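Dear colleagues,

As part of the handover before I leave the project, I'm documenting each prediction I ran so the next person doesn't have to rerun anything. This entry is a single chain, and its sequence is reproduced below.
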Amino acid sequence: MIRRRQPLARTPMPPRTTPLRRNGWPTQSPVERDETPSPSRSTGLSRGPIKARRTPVTAEERRGRRLVRLRSEGWCEIRLPGCGNAGSEWSHRIARGRGGSWDASNGLAACRSCHHLITDTQGHRAEYERLGYLVRTGLDTTSIPVRLYGDRWVLLTDTGEFVPIRDCTKARYRTEDQAQQALSRIWQHPIHGAGVMPTRAYRCPQCGGWHLTSMTLDDYEATAVAGKDSDHG
């Protein structure tokens, strides 16, 4: 007589206490790795770089860029050391963040190297203002001379043109500090019989340099007002 064995009682498998292994190394969950699960992992979407949205191009910007491109004929108008020659970028004389416009008089065609030097002045802002590449906030860019390549001093217009400035016959100083130092030397060592002594320095709107004059600021303003009255009369 054959005896049948009783089936063995099945017991459930105890919960796993060690993580699964992958390639010989134990895997860890994002929580154990102190990470937050990425949304792309849960959705299966690829995660790419986030691109900043550019402000839509306005009609004013298109017009200004077109006029400056025609004026420069595609060449860099600044020509600092290391210039790349091709004027592929726009350099604001008054920055947009300071209220600068897209008028042609407020822009210069610049290569990438010159544009970087003008934007990151590295302590040369006063020199760039003297050359007209940068203009202080609130000033009229059409009345501030700028030195273009070839050492040409010009005035820029909003219609995309430039007006050459004639050379001055008076003694010209490159910076205001040089003019003030010359003024101090004149007063410290006056020349007998030299006549009227200069009293102040001023920036010339024609050549972009600094001159000395004996005319006080009040006399100059009175003369300017009288000249305007005679023009209207």
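Residues 228-233 have pLDDT under 50 and may be disordered. The beta strands are 21-22, 25-26, 89-92, 107-110, 146-148, 152-156, 162-164, 200-203, 210-213.

All the best with the project,
I.
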